[in-house]
Design brief:
Elements lengths: L4 H22 L8 H14 L4 E2 L5 E5 L1 H4 L7 H4 L12 E6 L1 E2 L8 E7 L6 H20 L6 H14 L3 E2 L7 E3 L29 E4 L3 E5 L2 E5 L3 E4 L7 E3 L8 E2 L1
Parallel strand pairs: 5-13
Antiparallel strand pairs: 1-4, 2-3, 3-5, 6-9, 7-8, 8-11, 9-10, 11-12
C-alpha cells in the first residue's frame, strides 16, 4: 500500500492535537470528576484545535479505574461510553482514547493513561505502566516492512506471556489500520484491517494504530495498561511514530 505524504502528515497533525489536549487535561484533573465531565473538557479542547468530527462510535473514550478499563473487551458500546457516575479518586488509573477525524475525513487514533495521585500502595500500578509503555515502544521499534499483521500480534503476545499478562481487547488484537471517512463501508463492514493472529498481509506501506492493552493480577490486585500510537511503516527504512515526541506522565500528584 502506498500512502500520499499529505495523508501521513495529516495523521501526524491529528495525533499532535490529541497529545496536546491530553497534556492540557492533566493539569485540570480533580477528585470527583466523572468520566463524562472529563470527556466534555476534552471535546472542548479539541474543538479549539479545529476538531469537530470523530470516526469511532465513541469519539473520546474515558475510563476510570481497573474494572472500567476491562469494559473495553466488551462489544457493547453503551458500556464503554463515558459514565456520569464513575468518578475519579486517588490511586485510580485513568485511560483516555481519542478518535479524531479532520475536515478531509482522515483518521488518527491516540490513547494514553496514568495513575491519579498515587499513594505508596499504588507504586506497583505506576511500575506496571512503566513496563507496559516500555513493551509498547519496544514493539514499535521492532516493526519492519517484511512483517505481516499476524507477526505483529505474535510479537506482543509472546512478550506478554513472558510476564504472565493477558491481552485486553474486544477482538483480541493489538491494533489496526488507520483509514478515512466512515468506519464502515457501504456494506456495513468495518474498513479496518486488524493486527490479529490470522491476517497474513504485509504491514508495508500502512499507517497502523498500535494499541496493545493488557491486564494482570498481582498480589490479589488487578493491574492494567494500554498505550496507543499511530506508526507509518515505509516500504524501506525504520517505522515512523506520528505525533508522540516524548514519554507522557504516568502519574499525577
Amino acid at each position: 500500500m502506498n500512502l500520499r505524504i499529505e495523508s501521513i502528515q495529516a495523521v501526524e497533525t491529528l495525533q499532535e492535537k490529541c497529545i496536546s489536549s491530553y497534556n492540557e487535561l492533566l493539569d485540570t484533573l480533580k477528585d470527583g470528576m466523572s468520566e463524562a465531565d472529563i470527556k466534555l473538557i476534552l471535546i472542548s479542547l479539541m474543538k479549539k484545535k479545529g476538531i469537530h468530527s470523530y470516526w469511532y462510535d465513541i469519539g473520546i473514550m474515558v475510563l476510570i479505574n481497573e474494572n472500567r478499563f476491562r469494559d473495553m473487551q466488551k462489544k457493547d458500546y453503551v458500556l464503554k461510553c463515558p459514565s456520569e457516575t464513575v468518578v475519579l479518586k486517588k490511586g485510580n488509573p485513568i485511560f483516555i482514547d481519542f478518535h479524531p477525524m479532520d475536515e478531509n475525513g482522515i483518521w488518527s487514533d491516540f490513547s494514553s493513561m496514568c495513575i491519579f495521585k498515587p499513594s505508596d500502595d499504588d507504586k506497583d500500578k505506576v511500575s506496571f505502566l512503566e513496563l507496559i509503555y516500555s513493551i509498547h515502544m519496544e514493539g514499535i521499534r521492532s516493526l519492519n516492512s517484511t512483517m505481516t499483521f499476524a507477526d505483529v500480534f505474535r510479537w506482543y503476545q509472546t512478550k506478554y506471556k513472558e510476564y504472565n499478562m493477558e491481552i485486553e481487547d474486544a477482538r483480541h488484537t493489538v491494533g489496526h489500520t488507520v483509514d478515512s471517512g466512515k468506519k464502515n463501508d457501504k456494506y456495513g463492514n468495518d474498513k479496518r484491517l486488524f493486527l490479529d493472529s490470522i491476517n497474513r498481509e504485509s504491514i508495508s506501506g500502512y499507517i497502523l494504530a498500535i494499541e496493545p492493552g493488557v491486564y494482570k493480577f498481582s498480589n490479589k490486585k488487578m493491574l492494567v495498561g494500554r498505550f496507543e500510537d499511530c506508526v507509518y511503516i515505509p516500504q524501506s527504512g525504520v517505522p515512523v511514530i506520528l505525533g508522540r515526541k516524548n514519554k507522557l506522565p504516568l502519574y499525577i500528584n
